[in-house]
Amino acid sequence: MSWRVRTEPLPGEPPLTIPGDPYSVVVLLRGYSEPQGAGGAQRADGSVTLVLPRAWRPPGARGQPPAGPDAAAALAQAGSGPVLVDTGGPWARDALLAALAAQRVGPDAVSLVVGTHGHSDHVGSLGLFPRAALLVGHDLCLPGGLYLPHGLSEACPLRLGPGLEVWATPGHAGRGDVSVAVAGTALGTVVAAGDVFEREDDGDTWRGLSEDPVAQERSRQRVLAAADVVVPGHGGPFRVFREP
Ligand SMILES: [Fe+2]
To answer: Domains in the chain, please, with CATH?
Structure first.
């Protein structure tokens, strides 16, 4: 079945909450990318998204990833608390902490930070979360620097919880890009896709920023086939409609 895909911006300003069960999604910070002068410089920062389990309640909740060496168990425990998708750049540190505080989530309560790829405008504040498990690209690390093997591939997502998955979506930064998919929200499936999409309606502009445009096109089609809402790396979230 082939679909005609239509997109439109999701109205609202951050913090933009999409309620859901078992997970809600909050777009904490909206990424942007703006040309500066005529020399090709860009002022940019990445979007930051929070996935909040319905069952999680502040205060006192604190991410406690297990010390054991099993990646599936570690990811399941990490997914039971607040999950942050990207952190923005280090210059957004204070804005990030304020946005988390507005959700009543302290940095020590974040149980998992997923970095969609290793660029400074997406993982510039990992240092705020020493108690969280980190999944940056395909590197899964527990607090203290315990790196765990896992089976993530395009054919094999990592499961964090019911309807909450990490997908391998290569292309923008090479082979290691990942996205976070959250099923069961009020708007359907939300995918925080990093720079798989620069923004809604990014046309062909993403190709010039892509390490592997062939893989990225495949990743984009995968996301558009499944997502009802996409959080792109450098713009506001947008809805996806598939029409026969
Ligand atoms: Fe980016």
So the answer is: 4-243 (3.60.15.10)
38-91 pLDDT per residue, tens: 998 999 999 999 999 998 887 554 545 455 679 999 999 999 999 999 999 999
Please give the backbone phi and psi of residue 61, each rounded to the nearest 5 degrees, phi first: -70, 140
Report how far residue 103's alpha carbon sits from residue 202's, in angstroms, rounded to the nearest whole number: 30
CA angle at 157 for the pair 154 and 159, rounded to the nearest 5°: 175
Q: How far is the CA of 35 from the centre of ligand 1 (A)?
A: 14
Spell out the residues 6+ positions from residue 173 whose beta carbon is closer than 8 angstroms to its own.
117, 118, 119, 137, 195, 211
CA of 46 to the centre of ligand 1 (A): 5
Q: How far is the CA of 166 from the centre of ligand 1 (A)?
A: 18
pTM > 0.85: yes or no: yes
Peptide bond before 14: cis, by omega within 30 degrees of 0? no
